[in-house]
C-alpha cells in the first residue's frame, strides 16, 4: 500500500503521526477545559466547594485544593484507562476494547454534564477520558 509516496516503515510512521498528534492535542484541550470553566460564576455557584474567585484566606486555600483535585481527576482516569488497555486489549481484542472505551467515555461525559454535586463531578471526570 502506498500513501503520499510512503511505503513500509515510513508509511507506518506517517500513520502513527496522523493519529498521535490529533489525540495529543485533543487530550490537552480536554485537560485545560476543566480548569477554565471553574472560574465561571454559574459553575462555582453550582459547586461552591471549588469557588476560588469570591473566597479569601483559608477558605480560598482549601477550595483551591479541592478544585485542583477535581480538575486533575481527569488525568487519573486517563492513566487508568491507558493502563487497563494493556490487559483488556489482549483479552477482548482491539475492536471490543475500543467499543468499551467509547461506552465508558460516553457514560463519563453524560455523568459529568449532568453533575449536580461535587462527588459526582469528580467521579465523572475520572471516567470521561478512559481507554
TrEMBL record:
Recorded topology in the membrane: Multi-pass membrane protein
Annotated keywords: Membrane, Transmembrane, Transmembrane helix
Superkingdom assignment: Eukaryota
Pfam families xrefs: Sugar_tr
Membrane-crossing segments per the record: 14-33, 65-88, 100-122
Family: Belongs to the major facilitator superfamily. Sugar transporter (TC 2.A.1.1) family.
Stored PANTHER family: MAJOR FACILITATOR SUPERFAMILY (MFS) PROFILE DOMAIN-CONTAINING PROTEIN-RELATED (PTHR48022:SF45), PLASTIDIC GLUCOSE TRANSPORTER 4 (PTHR48022)
Name of the molecule in the record: Major facilitator superfamily (MFS) profile domain-containing protein
Gene source species: Kwoniella shandongensis
Amino acid at each position: 500500500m502506498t500513501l503520499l509516496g510512503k511505503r513500509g516503515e515510513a508509511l507506518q510512521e506517517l500513520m502513527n503521526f496522523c493519529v498521535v498528534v490529533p489525540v495529543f492535542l485533543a487530550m490537552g484541550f480536554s485537560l485545560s477545559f476543566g480548569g477554565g470553566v471553574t472560574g465561571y460564576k454559574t459553575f462555582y455557584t453550582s459547586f461552591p466547594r471549588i469557588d476560588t474567585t469570591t473566597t479569601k484566606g483559608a477558605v480560598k486555600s482549601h477550595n483551591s485544593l479541592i478544585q485542583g483535585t477535581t480538575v486533575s481527576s481527569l488525568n487519573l482516569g486517563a492513566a487508568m484507562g491507558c493502563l487497563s488497555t494493556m490487559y483488556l486489549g489482549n483479552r477482548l481484542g482491539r475492536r471490543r476494547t475500543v467499543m468499551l472505551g467509547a461506552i465508558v467515555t460516553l457514560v463519563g461525559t453524560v455523568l459529568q454534564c449532568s453533575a449536580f454535586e461535587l462527588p459526582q463531578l469528580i467521579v465523572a471526570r475520572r471516567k470521561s477520558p478512559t481507554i
